[in-house]
Amino acid sequence: MVAEHRPRWKTLLAFAIIYFVWGSTFLSIRIGVREVPPFLFAAMRFMIAGLVLYVWMIARGERSPSRREWASATAIAVLAFVFDYGLLFWAEQRVPSGLAAVMLATIPVFMALSEIIFLRTQRLTLRLAIALLIGIGGVVVLVSHSLHMGGMPIDPAGAVALIIASISWALASALTRILPLPST
User: Fold this and answer.
1) Proportion of the chain in helix, strand, coil states, percent, rounded to 5
2) CA-based, 20 to 30 A from 55: which of 103, 128, 137, 174?
3) DSSP letter at 2?
């Protein structure tokens, strides 16, 4: 088996696109929720994206998911899009977009915890516990620095919504491993 070697510039370009799209998402949401109610704005964004992807899938000749797969996808979508993104869109009316992005950096911590608690695919070792604490500590440091930069105080309801959003995304990710989903 021969490993495919991509040019380095393609890898760097892919990362640059990811960082630009991911980073600009939070600013776009912040601007959008000033004009459109947050849950309506989120619903419009993901309904359009979902319909485009579904039409593309059918156009490529792939079969539609079974009822069981639709039920699984719906459960994951409620956690990932209704709770995670719905709360993110709502919170961006109350917290700066950069702070929202930093607070959602807790998702990997909650994913690790969901693997330990729900999936039981990880064990909480001393090394992992230290890594999780460093990750959370980094977010705390970044959030606390933003408190002292002359900005408005962080809205507690917005901050709590962002933490719940992170937990919701982590749970949705864990469910993708155990629920029946369409094959790719």
Assistant:
1) 75, 0, 25
2) 174
3) P
- Mean pLDDT along residues 87-104: 90
Residue 181: both structure tokens together: 């989903």
Tokens of 47: 């309904």
Written as six digits, the tokens of 91 are 């919170």
Distance CA 89, CA 97 (A): 10
Angle between helices 107-114 and 156-178 (to 10 degrees): 40
* CA-closest candidate to residue 115, choices 64, 174, 166, 72: 174
Closest CA to 74 of 159, 183, 182, 184: 182
Confidence label for 166 from pLDDT (cuts 50, 70 and 90):
very high
Mean local confidence (pLDDT), 2-31 = 84
Measured over the CA atoms of residue 32, residue 37, residue 39 and residue 43, the dihedral's sign is: negative
> What is the distance between the alpha carbons of residues 181 and 176, in angstroms, rounded to a whole number?
7
pTM of the model: 0.79
CA atoms within 13 A on the CB side of 109: 21
Residue spans per domain, the chain: 10-178
Q: Is 95 exposed, middle or buried, given 0-12, 13-18 or 19+ CB atoms closer than 10 A? A: buried
What is the number of alpha carbons within 13 Å of residue 10 lying toward its C-beta?
A: 4
